[in-house]
Design goal:
Blueprint: E1 2-3, E2 15-16, H1 22-33, H2 52-71, H3 98-106, H4 111-123, H5 127-131, E3 138-139, H6 142-146, E4 151-154, E5 157-162, H7 163-168, E6 174-177, E7 187-192, E8 201-204, H8 207-227, H9 248-262, H10 271-283, H11 288-295, H12 301-307, H13 311-327, H14 346-357, H15 359-375
Antiparallel strand pairs: 1-2, 3-4, 4-8, 5-7, 6-7
Helix pairs in contact: 4-8, 4-10, 14-15
Length: 376
């Protein structure tokens, strides 16, 4: 069994998988960083060489493939977890604050978008998870709400896949295929299993969101009654008026329109999930595991790496709390009540003023005086 990433790569062209070790993988990644991306459909590549993000995607595929080789006992161990991947510098994500999201919700006049925004923010759901959610996974009975146990199960997602890919994969992980509206299409909308096991999760719903879902279901029932046999009932939570699934391009267009109308910063719908993660980390004082349980991230460092910048705000607050609870005490700064006489030397006056305003300077001066006393 051989590995053939690129025919023109000399010794990389045909290498037995048994000969692939971490050193080989490291050299492979170095070579990838000097490889130019391929132009696709006459589109000019955005970068001169393959980006770290692209190489990370390659790494994921190969790591998975070699893990299967280990299970089949073709190789003894997977070399990819031990390899040095190129470092990816995450860009700071533009997100809305809680106040911005509240304003967007207040001014939203599209009920399906209103429901989707609440699920993205309150439940940290991905777009595909929201659009693939079915009513049998939503638990918002009177008893559930009374016991603060309103919740939903995320076990599937909506996606558009090519018919060719479905045939090659033998419809693996496909749970339902929506009939195509047009006969000449090369893709299908499907309900499929999430990419990772961690994405399958239970998320508790705030009471207000539970009541919003109830109201939305009543609206759906009115559509069903009005359209009768012309309504496509797939039991989906988020639908068009005729019951058909809502695709990403439709929701993104509606979201963009309402965002501009409200005069809010330019972000995409998916950023609501990032706002949710940030907000929950602040609410639970950095409980990463609890937040990960809601978001369904496969690795906890996907939260810590991308969202670490939110801690800067809290660190500033920490300094303010330190000042209020520690340094404001009378006993901390013995020089605070010292008032220099009017005829004091100006330089000395400035020194005393500086000492009054800087406890750190007092500590440094005290330490220096102790050192002089010991040396003398």
């Amino acid at each position: 069994m051989t590995l053939s990433p690129l025919r023109s790569w000399g010794r990389w062209a045909a290498v037995a998988v048994q000969d692939v070790n971490p050193k080989f993988v490291d050299e492979f990644y170095v070579r990838l960083q000097k490889t130019r991306p391929v132009a696709k459909k006459n589109k000019k590549p955005k970068s001169e060489y393959l980006t770290p993000g692209t190489i990370h995607s390659i790494h994921k595929i190969l790591r998975c493939a070699f893990e299967q080789a280990v299970k089949w006992e073709i190789i003894a161990r997977n070399p990819f977890p031990h390899a040095n991947k190129p470092k990816t510098n995450y860009k700071k994500r533009d997100i809305w604050t809680a106040d911005m999201i509240r304003k967007a919700l207040d001014e939203c006049d599209d009920m399906k978008l209103y429901v989707a925004m609440n699920l993205a923010f309150a439940c940290s759901m991905r777009y595909g998870e929201i659009c693939g959610l079915t009513w049998d996974k939503v638990h918002i009975s009177d008893e559930d709400i009374a016991n603060d146990d309103s919740h939903l199960w995320i076990e599937q997602e909506l996606a558009r896949v090519s018919k060719e890919a479905r045939q090659q994969l033998d419809d693996k992980d496909i749970m339902f295929i929506f009939p195509s509206i047009m006969s000449n299409t090369h893709t299908n909308l499907v309900l499929k299993k999430p990419k990772t096991e961690s994405s399958i999760r239970k998320v508790w719903i705030p009471k207000t969101v539970a009541y919003i879902l109830r109201e939305w279901r009543q609206i759906q029932d009115q559509y069903k009654e009005y359209l009768a046999q012309d309504y496509f009932d797939y039991n989906l939570v988020l639908t068009l008026p005729n019951g058909r699934p809502v695709e990403n391009r439709i929701m993104e267009k509606e979201f963009s329109k309402r965002r501009e109308k409200a005069g809010l910063p330019c972000v995409v719908f998916h950023s609501l999930r990032h706002s949710s993660t940030t907000y929950k980390l602040k609410l639970n004082h950095g409980d990463l595991k609890a937040t990960q349980g809601d978001t369904g991230h496969a690795q906890i460092d996907m939260i810590t790496d991308v969202y670490a910048y939110i801690l800067d705000e809290d660190r500033k607050v920490n300094a303010q709390k330190f000042e209020a609870t520690f340094y404001a005490k009378n006993s901390v700064n013995p020089l605070k009540d010292v008032t220099p006489p009017e005829d004091t030397n100006p330089d000395l006056t400035n020194l005393i003023s500086a000492l009054q305003q800087s406890p750190e300077l007092v500590a440094m001066l005290t330490q220096a005086l102790k050192g002089n006393a010991i040396s003398s």
